[in-house]
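Reviewer 2 asked us to include a model.

Predict the structure of this chain.
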Amino acid sequence: VARAKSHYEMVTSKDGTDAQKKTRGTEWLKLSFEEVISRDIKLMKSCGLIPYWNEATQSIDNALFDQFVGSSAEDEAFSKYQAHIPMNTGSHSLISRGLYELQLRKWFKKFSPGLFFVAKMEDLKEDGGVQRIMNQLFRFFNVPDFKVEDTSVKNKRDYKDMNAETRELLKKFYGRHNERLRLLLGEEWEGVW
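Predicted model (structure tokens):
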């Protein structure tokens, strides 16, 4: 939920170098956060990626979700959706980027899940979090620890809170997906968002 808002704010920010602004794209500059959400949901829906999402009630049909998610039909719909993503700009896939389980599942089918290190950005924000996560990463790759000298926050922006209705919509949308992420990654991912 917060990632989507942060992504939108980063892409629509007027701050940054010319190169950063070019990479972000201009597609969302005149759109509200809610309009960008709506466009991505409509694109996912038109590609068959979220047949379980009822736009009128802004809710998930749980039976259809359970039937569809993890199926070859979902994989095909995700590929169809990805074909619509412009790779020359950051102004795309605001909502689908948060479907972490869907994205990781493909990799976990090809490679052993033990070959992946997955961390939560929130853990980096904790006091000492950068060094702690980096130490875990160094151990994961079996390389010596290294003291990270500069752990200051980079690319931070202040922005208005999202409205309560939008937050609730995103919580409903991502809820079942985050449950699947926990099933994929383990109990430590229970209720993280």
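The mean pLDDT is 93. The beta strands are 53-54, 59-60. We have added this to the supplementary material.
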